[in-house]
Amino acid sequence: MLNNNIFIRKFNNCDREDIRRISCDTAFLEEPRKVFFDDDEILADALTLYFTDYEPDSCFVAVKNDKIIGYIIGTTDVKLMQKIFFIRIIPLLIIKALNKRIIFKRNTLNFLIHILLSLLKGEFIRPDFSKKYPATLHINIDKAFRRQNIGKQLIEYYLKFLKEKNVSGVHFGVISESAKEFFIKLGFNILFRSKLSYLRYYLGKFIPYYILGNLLK
User: Fold this and answer.
1) Which of 48, 123, 208, 211 pairs as cysteine with 118 (C-beta 3.0–4.6 A)?
2) Which residues form the N-acetyltransferase domain (predicted)?
């Protein structure tokens, strides 16, 4: 049990839409997402589908008054996640995008072009940390419930879950200085750092990219 009648519990399927909603609300550094992407269904699929549909046992939610106010989702095996994502999820996203014709909409096309430019520049090349840190996580809190210690509690809950699974370590990426500082305070270390340009056309600046990790044994 947490403060203010907030609970953390295992994910179940009825939580899926709330997780998808929060994931969209908090994407793109909380800038208006429609500036970058025109379809919430596809965006939510890209952010959450693997976790909720292929590894639900590694997903947990924070609840207050029967309302989902935050989540932590992840995997104990990044290599398996990447395999399923490329073989099953990416083709699904492409088919949906073509059927909905969103890749021809101005904002989405502009965003995808800048993602491609970053890719061609090698900005998404990073070391493979999966041997020592085989797990990953993704955490988000509803804006109305920030600064209530919920994120810290979700992280601690998830790390305990990983330790019980005998997972040796966890790593993940963040694209903000505040997120980096939050995880450092919780004992995570910076494993890799770089800068990304794919949002520069809108934000007017590069965004930082950090990979953080925590060895659990």
Assistant:
1) 123
2) 6-208
User: How far is the C-alpha of 86 from the C-alpha of 99, rounded, in Å?
Assistant: 19
51-88 pLDDT, tens digit each: 999 999 999 999 999 999 999 999 999 999 999 999 99
Return the structure tokens found at 56: 């639900």
> Are the beta carbons of 48 and 15 closer than 8 angstroms?
no
Alpha-carbon gap, residue 211 to 75, rounded angstroms: 16
Q: Is the separation of the CB atoms in 176 and 140 below 8 Å? A: no
Has this prediction a pTM greater than 0.90? yes
For the chain, domains (ranges, CATH) are 3-215 (3.40.630.30)
Find the farthest-apart pair of alpha carbons in the chain and give their distance in angstroms, rounded.
48
Q: Give the gyration radius of the chain's Cα atoms.
A: 17
